[in-house]
Specification:
By secondary structure, the chain is α/β, with parallel strands linked by helices. Helix content is 42%, strand content 15%. It has a nine-stranded mixed β-sheet, with helices on both faces. The chain is globular, with a radius of gyration of 23 Å. The protein starts with 12 loop residues before the first helix and ends in a 21-residue tail after the last helix.
Length: 457
């Protein structure tokens, strides 16, 4: 498994990269005096920027070092016997109260290690969090929300249940608990546990999400019913949509009432086509370079990854989001892209990315999607394309288009993407309340999307 600690060394690889760029930043003029002034000014600017980067990285490094002992102490909890003893998906291997305490009211919080599996049935284990209201369970048991988290990185310490801020992407959690619902939160197998996290590989993500509900059904005192909803943000939105596709056949003993995605990364094929040369590619590219060849062994990284990415992707993927964002921004600034070509122009990669693009769900599976018009990570045009194609296919789809959550409609914002999780969670809470009480789902397929759909990849 990725350790996620010690991946930033010394004064940082990021600072070293920027330092090298400062040494080659020269602007030449005919006048020696002008050349000197410009060179000194550039050098001062680089020193200032480099000092800021070093300070940021030192803080990150300090945080990484501070968590090393904590993560080491958690390793025994997340280590299952190999081979696993006989059992079934959802079986609980061990559990303990969640620390640090997330500070929720009228709720109990747990860290859980449970059994899941690969699509071919090969056993795996996943960490998870489980949140249970303290109020008495209603007759028939508590409804369940299966949460699927966004991209966090592949290092052990990035797994939400192992994090020092375990509920940082779950602003809506208290509201769901106040309604008496149990909430599960899978880490996904391979994130914080042995093996590879199958990032943006839909069946794997969905299986781990569904099996977290099976786990809740077995947990003493949870009183979880067989009725649940699946909700995710970004990468987790991709997982939730795939859960909607496979749940009826994969877990027929459970009743999935609908799926909700906040800015879901539903169409990797379309997203990659638009972002392969952008800074975002340094955040998601290393995870894709790790997971897709594991799922599709015939894929050749050298066909799509840049020489710089081939050297760095394992280290970047093995860290968490802050490292990826800092290093990626610097590398992109230096003109180094994660991809050398659009992977959708390489047949084997195009086939794999298309296979992992979520397909329209049947009318019997209601869907809620929230998306902002200036999301810089999950591009709005990809959701507009989904709205057009899924509505044409007869899906019961409600797309709640949001205005800018940061900046303006004309300024794509990664911060907007982050905030969409909180806003989407609030909207999903009301939507699932209606699904659980039997209100007929609405569809706004008769209303065109607010942005121009992306071309079909």
């Amino acid at each position: 498994m990725f350790r996620g600690v010690g991946t930033i060394t010394g004064k940082s690889r990021a600072a070293l990269i920027l330092g090298r760029s400062c040494r080659v930043t020269g602007i030449y003029r005919r006048s020696v005096r002008t050349r000197t002034v410009v060179a000194v000014t550039a050098a001062i600017a680089c020193v200032v920027v480099l000092s800021v980067v070093v300070a940021i990285v030192a803080a990150v490094r300090g945080s990484v070092d501070a968590t090393a002992n904590v993560q080491g102490a958690l390793d025994p909890f997340y280590t299952a016997s190999s081979p696993l003893p006989p059992g079934a998906p959802g079986d609980i291997i061990r559990s303990e109260p969640l620390t640090p305490d997330p500070g929720l009211t009228n709720a109990r919080s747990y860290r859980v290690l449970y059994r899941t599996e690969m699509p071919d049935g090969t056993p795996r284990v996943s960490g998870a969090m489980l949140f249970i209201p303290t109020a008495p369970a209603p007759v028939g048991g508590r409804k369940v929300i299966a949460w699927a988290h966004p991209t966090v990185g592949m290092g052990d310490s990035c797994a939400p249940s192992r994090s020092s801020q375990p509920t940082q992407n779950m602003d809506w959690l208290q509201g769901m608990l106040d309604r008496g619902w149990v909430v599960t939160a899978t880490d996904y197998a391979g994130l914080g546990t042995v093996g590879i996290e199958y990032y943006l590989i839909g069946q794997n993500e969905a299986i781990d999400t569904i099996n977290s509900v099976r786990m809740a059904r077995q947990f003493p005192g949870a009183d979880a019913s067989d009725t649940y909803g699946a909700f995710g943000h970004s990468q987790g939105g991709h997982a939730a949509l795939w859960a909607g596709a496979i749940a009826p056949s994969y877990a027929p003993e459970l009743h999935l009432v609908g799926v909700a995605g906040a800015a879901p990364a539903a169409a990797p094929s379309s997203l990659v086509s638009q972002q392969w040369a952008d800074t975002v590619s340094w955040v998601i590219g290393p995870d894709v370079f790790t997971s897709f060849p594991a799922a599709y062994p015939d894929l050749d990284l050298a066909q799509v990854a840049s020489p710089e990415a081939l050297k760095r992707y394992e280290s970047i993927a093995g860290g968490c989001m802050l490292q990826a964002m800092i290093e990626g921004r610097i590398l992109q600034h230096l003109g180094k892209t994660a991809f050398t070509v659009n992977p959708m122009t390489v047949p084997a990669w195009a086939k794999a990315l298309t296979a992992q693009t979520a397909k329209p769900l049947p009318a019997s599976m209601p869907i809620l999607i929230t998306e902002s018009v200036n999301d810089a990570v999950v591009i709005p045009s990809t959701i507009a394309l989904l709205q057009e194609t899924w509505c044409a296919a007869g899906s019961t789809l409600q797309v709640d288009w949001l205005g800018p959550l940061r900046g303006t409609a004309g300024t794509p914002s990664s911060m907007t993407h982050i905030y969409e999780g909180a806003v989407g969670g609030a909207l999903a809470t009301t939507w699932f309340d209606q699904r659980f009480t039997g209100t007929a789902p609405a569809s706004n397929c008769g209303t065109p999307p607010l942005v121009e759909p992306a071309p079909m990849p």
